[in-house]
Amino acid sequence: MRLIGITGGVGAGKSEALSYIKKHYKCKIYLADEVAKEIQQPGQPCYEEMVSLLGREALGEDGRLDNRKVAGRIFLDKDLLLAVNGIVHPKVREYLEREIGRAKADGWTELFFIEAALLIESGYKSLVDEMWYVYAPDEIRRERLKKNRGYSDEKISRIMESQLAEKAFRENSDFIIDNSGAAGEAFNQIRKRLEAYTWQE
C-alpha cells in the first residue's frame, strides 16, 4: 500500500483531484480537517480537553463545540491557537495511524491518501511515502474561491498569507499536479503517476 500526502494552497483544487482518485482507484482518503472535527465531538478523544481549555462558553446549545466561537477565539490569540493545535494535531495523527493499520490489513487498499493544507507544517512528511502538491496560480485560486465559495478578497488574502509560500510547497513535495488549466489536464497527470495501480472505471 502506498501512503500519499496531498497538500496545496486554498482554492488549488485538492478536493477535485481527490474526487477523481476516489472514483478510479482502490484507495482510502482521509481529510485531516474532517478527522479533527470528528475527534472534537462529545465522547471523542479531544472533547473534554478542548472544553477544559476553552470553557463551556465555547459550546453551542447542543453541547458540541461551536466552530465559529472557537475560530473567533483562536484567531485573536496565537497562544490559544498553539494550545488547541497541541491537543488536536497529535490525536489526528493517532487516528490516521490506526486507519493506516486497518487499510494495510484489509488486503484491498492500494493507495491511502491524507489531505490537509498544513500537511507539511504538521510533520506528515515522516509518515507518508510521498508528498503531492496541487498547484494553481494565485489569481486562478482567487477566482475559484470567489465563484465557488463566495469568499471576499480580504478573506482570501488572510488565508493565503497564513499558508506556506509556493517555494516551500515545491521544495517539500515529490510530485506536483499543475491544476491551472482544465480539470482533465490535472487528471491526466494523476493517471500517469498512478499507472502502476489498479484502474477502475
Largest β-sheet summary: 5 strands, parallel
Tertiary shape: globular
Mean pLDDT: 95
Strand order of the largest sheet: 2-3-1-4-5
Unreliable stretches: none
Give the percentage of residues in beta strands. Answer: 5-15%
Q: Given the structure, what is the number of helices?
A: 9
What class would the helix/strand composition place it in? alpha/beta
- Written as H for each helix and E for each strand, in order along the chain, the element string is EHEHHHHEEHHHEH
Approximate helicity band: 40-55%
How many beta-strand runs?
5
Radius of gyration: 18 Å
Walkthrough of the structure:
This protein is of the alpha/beta class. It is 51% helix and 13% strand. It has nine helices and five strands. A five-stranded parallel β-sheet has the order 2-3-1-4-5, sandwiched between helices. Helix 1 (14-24) crosses helix 9 (183-193). The relative contact order is 0.23. The model has no long low-confidence stretch (mean pLDDT 95).
Please name the defining characteristics of this protein.
201 residues; alpha/beta; 5-stranded parallel beta sheet; 9 helices; 51% helix
